[in-house]
Amino acid sequence: MASLITREQIENFALQGLSYADDHVGDPFSIKDVSDRLGISYSYFYHNFAQYMGEPFWHYVKRHRLELAAGLLRHSGYNIGEISDLCGYATTAAFSKAFKQHFKESPKDFRQIIILPNEKRTLQITESITAALGPDAFNGLFNYERCEKVKLPDSILYYSLISRGQDPVAEMIARMTQYYNLFKKMQTLYDLPQSRIITGTLDAVPVTNYERLSMFAGILIPVPAIAAHIQLQQNFGYLMTKRFTGGNYLKLPVPMDFATAGVPMYNFISMNCKEGVFKMSGNHFFISMNGPSNSEIYIPQLKKHY
């Protein structure tokens, strides 16, 4: 079987496995569930995922769940028991034990850390780019008072991972035009007026090591748009999918491209969450790209803080 499969297919199997794990963070599943979904054997998927990703599948699943949990500890108002459940742990005790083994801190103590180790690098990168753009580049645009409170429907994201490893943000910027044009053509061809072309990461920005960030570009479509889902599944089966929970979001429009908007976005989110201005309901904030110089940032807001 291996001799008949190209490197691109091996990469696709691994990324599809990564996508499945991300979309089932809170659900119980087995490696066989993933291999059956991909139509390959258990052992073939197991070995090729480890070869391509550099870590065994279950190591990735556990790490990803704990990093997302750490992101929720950082930015959400959920209690530890709620975070444990959201990240697929049967009990809070099991979650707390696994968390301390991985991060060397209990969830409670982790929540009190002012600046995380990986966050330092993110802030350094942000500050260096901001300085290069000049002090007047953002002109007070990243201000909570400019946010609009909106409700988004439950949606499905059809996406491609456009960078992973080395310098993921730089790679994403280099490849984004190609993917934006693809999704723009899809919008026109299939008449998807309610859809959004978006970009973001599957990971928890202040927690996941920068070189391991998985950056995506995709098209977000409301669940009720049945005809659109059928068309995309039939014609773009190679795209990965992710469920996006609807509900309360903050929308911040900014007159700039996604790359420029992404520079101060994390600092804006982190600062407001730390100060209690708002709390997030998940790690799935994203940038909606409305044109070359027009973006909207969407931040999922926890209802009890709405």
Automatic annotation (TrEMBL):
InterPro entries: Homeodomain-like_sf (IPR009057), HTH_AraC (IPR018060), HTH_AraC-typ_CS (IPR018062)
The keyword Ubl conjugation belongs to this UniProt entry's keyword annotation: no
Pfam families: HTH_18
Domain HTH araC/xylS-type: start-end pairs: 15-113
Keywords: DNA-binding, Transcription, Transcription regulation
Keyword DNA-binding recorded: yes
SMART domains in the cross-refs: HTH_ARAC
Coiled coil: none
GO MF terms held by the record: DNA-binding transcription factor activity; sequence-specific DNA binding
PANTHER family: ARAC-FAMILY TRANSCRIPTIONAL REGULATOR (PTHR43280), HTH-TYPE TRANSCRIPTIONAL REGULATOR EXSA (PTHR43280:SF2)
Protein's name according to its UniProt entry: Helix-turn-helix transcriptional regulator
Lineage of the organism: Bacteria, Pseudomonadati, Bacteroidota, Chitinophagia, Chitinophagales
